[in-house]
């Protein structure tokens, strides 16, 4: 599928526009998305209260975006939103990537949720993951719809750097909880500095209008229809 012709910059979206297009994206991702999109939106919509909770929280995020005074400012606010949400979903990504179970998982749940029991902590992280991933994907789509087509590449790089830093952070928690010495402690600050640098790059780089092929198939279809 060839990229559509570049259009004039879109007008800023209202709060209602942002919510309407977010919900439209969820519907399309649920039906025709890739494996990750279908998995996340499927779990989001399988329970009515879970979807309503996401809708209420996403609404607050979109109200902040809608307060922007221009299309460009909306785009940068959406970039910031997408990046921030990655931190909310970091724990489940770590648990899955490292296949963490048993004592080590319990240690991490106590560290991140000291006031909850183990089951409550796991359920909280699961809910946070679904909600954050959905809002993050919506933010991706909205930036593309507003004309910024380069977020995907930057976003995936940031996710990689964040997961590298957060992995060391969690490894340190587990190691020290067992009474052992964490030998890679000096590298944590280096990884954190790299993460901050990637965040600055995303939030300050110029808009990209010619990165159409980097978009996910779902976003590409939706953006293509609107051009």
Description:
By secondary structure, the chain is an all-alpha fold. Helix 4 runs antiparallel to helix 7, helix 6 crosses helix 8 and helix 8 packs antiparallel against helix 9. The radius of gyration is 19 Å and the shape is globular. It has one domain. It contains ten helices and no strands. The N terminus is likely disordered.
Key structural traits:
single chain, 10 helices, 0% strand, mainly alpha, 227 residues, disordered N terminus
Question: What's a quick, concise take on this entry?
Answer:
This protein is mainly alpha-helical and 227 residues long. The protein contains ten helices and no strands.
Helix-strand layout with pairing:
Blueprint: H1 15-32, H2 35-45, H3 48-66, H4 71-88, H5 90-98, H6 102-112, H7 118-145, H8 151-177, H9 185-204, H10 217-225
- Mean pLDDT across all amino acids: 88
**From the helix content, strand content and strand pairing, which structural class follows?**
mainly alpha
Please tell me how large the radius of gyration is. 19 Å
What's the shape?
Answer: globular
**Largest sheet, described in full?**
none
Distance between the termini: 14 Å
Q: Domains counted in the coordinates: how many?
A: 1
């Amino acid at each position: 599928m060839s990229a559509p012709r570049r259009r004039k910059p879109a007008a800023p979206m209202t709060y209602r526009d942002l919510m309407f297009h977010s919900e439209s994206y969820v519907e399309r991702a649920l039906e025709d998305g890739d494996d990750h999109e279908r998995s996340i939106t499927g779990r989001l919509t399988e329970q009515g209260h879970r979807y309503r909770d996401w809708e209420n929280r996403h609404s607050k995020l979109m109200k902040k975006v809608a307060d922007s005074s221009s299309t460009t400012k909306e785009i940068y606010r959406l970039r910031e939103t997408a990046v921030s949400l990655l931190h909310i979903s970091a724990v489940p990504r770590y648990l899955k990537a490292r296949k963490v179970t048993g004592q080590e998982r319990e240690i991490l749940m106590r560290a991140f949720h000291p006031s909850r029991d183990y089951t409550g902590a796991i359920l909280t992280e699961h809910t946070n993951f679904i909600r954050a991933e959905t809002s993050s994907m919506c933010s991706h789509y909205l930036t593309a719809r507003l004309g910024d087509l380069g977020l995907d590449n930057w976003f995936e790089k940031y996710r990689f750097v964040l997961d590298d830093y957060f992995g060391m952070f969690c490894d340190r928690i587990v190691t020290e909880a067992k009474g052992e010495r964490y030998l890679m402690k000096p590298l944590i600050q280096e990884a954190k500095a790299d993460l901050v640098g990637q965040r600055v790059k995303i939030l300050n780089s110029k808009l990209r209008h010619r990165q159409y092929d980097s978009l996910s198939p779902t976003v590409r279809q939706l953006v293509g229809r609107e051009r």
